[in-house]
Write a structure and sequence with these properties.
Blueprint (H helix, E strand, L loop, with lengths): L2 E9 L6 H14 L3 E10 L6 H11 L3 E5 L6 H10 L5 E4 L11 H10 L4 E6 L6 H18 L11 E4 H6 L9 H11 L5 E5 L13 H24 L36 E2 L2
């Protein structure tokens, strides 16, 4: 049966990429026969290059696009958390706005969701299109994360996630920077869920430049991976407990078509830009 999909994405100074990314997402979701209701939620993380203006213009042709706006830059983690929180549908797809993760990767994920038995899926980049230092850094932090969490995931840090909406929206995310994807993998594992990994295509950036410095990012990632590992160790020893407030029951989605949660396509109206507080 067709499934409901929310796309959630952060955007910071992505004027060179955001129009192409949103258009690609919209065209895919509109045309895919196994996608029922859908929406796109982008959080503009205080961009200064026209990203916000472009997103507002895109809303005129895509009323299912919701824009959450930060008045100032708060970091990728905060933008990801805000975008996820603003979604409404049964499954949430986390993407980036730089064009590196084609939404066509979702084909295999939809089939796996329809087969049942999964709550959290992650895309494993078989050939990473990043430069060599970034690939080394990601591989090292992924290996350490697997060791600390006693897991064996191929791509611990991948941002391409497809997670059951109630579970995703209830995750208590703390990361402020580019480590949010690593935290998501760890948080879901903490709750006792197993990630299903599927291979995905990874492209070079469509344009522009990364919003963070390599050495500062590497330092912050090392510190954050250590923090997550310490947290996991304390959870295993019973010093900490998994937060229960707001977390959904660990039940798999019921088989069959989901109940519609949006009005019919012809009834949709434009969604106003919302100022995050």
């Amino acid at each position: 049966m067709p499934i409901e999909i929310s796309v959630a994405a952060p955007a910071y100074n992505e004027a060179a990429n955001i129009a192409a990314a949103v258009t690609e997402w919209r065209d895919y979701l509109e045309r895919h026969p196994e996608v029922a209701a859908w929406e796109i939620v982008v959080c503009d993380d205080g961009s200064s290059d026209g990203t916000g203006r472009i997103l507002r213009e895109l809303q005129a042709g895509c009323p299912r696009l919701t824009v959450v706006t930060f008045a100032s830059n708060r970091g990728a983690g905060a933008a990801i958390a805000a975008a996820i929180a603003a979604t409404r549908l049964e499954w949430v797809v986390l993407l980036d706005s730089d064009g590196q993760f084609p939404i066509a990767n979702l084909d295999a994920f939809i089939g796996r969701i329809q087969a049942g038995g999964v709550l959290a899926l992650s895309g494993a980049r078989i050939r990473k299109a990043d430069s060599l230092p970034y690939r080394w850094g990601s591989a090292a932090s992924g290996a350490v994360s697997n060791l600390l969490h006693r897991t064996r995931y191929r791509d611990f840090n991948s941002i391409f996630k497809v997670v059951h909406g109630p579970l995703f929206r209830a995750l208590p995310l703390e990361s402020a920077g580019m480590n949010c994807s690593t935290e998501i993998t760890a948080r879901v594992a903490e709750l006792g869920h197993t990630w299903t990994e599927l291979p995905i295509e990874h492209r070079e950036r469509g344009g522009g430049s990364r919003g963070w410095r390599f050495w500062r990012g590497a330092r912050d990632r090392a510190l954050f991976v250590g923090y997550l590992g310490l947290r996991h160790w304390l959870l295993r020893r019973g010093v900490l407990r998994v937060p229960e407030r707001g977390l959904p029951e660990p039940r798999l989605p019921e088989p069959g078509p989901p109940e519609p949660r949006l009005s019919e396509p012809g009834e949709h109206v434009g969604v106003p830009v919302r100022e995050a507080r």
